[in-house]
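Reopening this ticket.

The earlier resolution said the output was attached, but the attachment link was broken on my side. Pasting everything inline this time so it's all in one place.
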Amino acid sequence: MHIKNQQDFWSGVMFIVIGVGFALLAESYDMGTPARMGPGYFPFWLGVCLALLGAIVLMTSLRGETKEDTEIGHFDWDILFLIIGSIAVFALMLDHLGLYISVPLLIIFSSLASHEFSIKIAIFNAIFLTLFTWLAFIKGLGLIFPLLPVPFGEWSLLAQIFVPLSLIIAVVTLARRLKGK
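Inline output:
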């Protein structure tokens, strides 16, 4: 078979690999039943669905006519580091800055990775997703997360160093993105 669309082919491969990885890792947790789900139930089925979606995308890349301009271009490492870095900073900030500050910062910082970045859209998404997170996880599932920041003196040494440093880096990146528009 000949690959007709490079982007779809490699996207399908990526979805399959990530989906199978999620499903395999989720099997180490208690699965439970559909009526009483364990911690591995949802990630397992999410991984299976992602792998199936990847298989569909991969199969469609092998059918039809060859598409023009579907070559894989230059990989932008900055985008990868922005997204992974914002998730890592969120994980570090959540206990110290609380949900109401950490989620909007995560959304705005990860939005910087988009080539079509818009501060208005990023702020709207941050407000909406903070509200959704509060409704789904705090009110809906009853999870316990700190909502407001704790005093700086109560932070761990790691957080006292990396949270302000990451905020400075993110603000500089945001300023550079806004200046470039």
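Reporter confirms the inline version is readable. The first helix runs from residue 6 to 26. The mean pLDDT is 84.
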